[in-house]
Amino acid sequence: MTAYWINFFTRISDPDRVAAYAALAGPAMRAAGGRFLARGEPAHTFEGGTSCRTTLIEFDSVEAAVAAYHSPDYQEALRVLGDAAERDLRIIPAVDPAH
């Protein structure tokens, strides 16, 4: 079942390192089968929503998303990112359309 990788950048202290991370992370996600659905700053936030850079990536399964996280290419992107940002990253399964 489809799964979604949702990444919130809750703090960015070094935008240049975040850009270097993104240059590596994007190709790593696509190589692992990820499809970018949305990324950037929110157009609007409601009900206590935090205005922070967000990325939404679709994968064929939770397992594929988790494998992408652990892939050598993505781990290299994380090494480059280091402590340049704090993030809240989660992988969630899609809703079963039959329910």
UniProtKB/TrEMBL annotation:
It comes from Pseudonocardia charpentierae. InterPro entries: Dimeric_a/b-barrel, DUF1330. Residues 2-94 form the DUF1330 domain. This is DUF1330 domain-containing protein. It comes from the Bacteria.
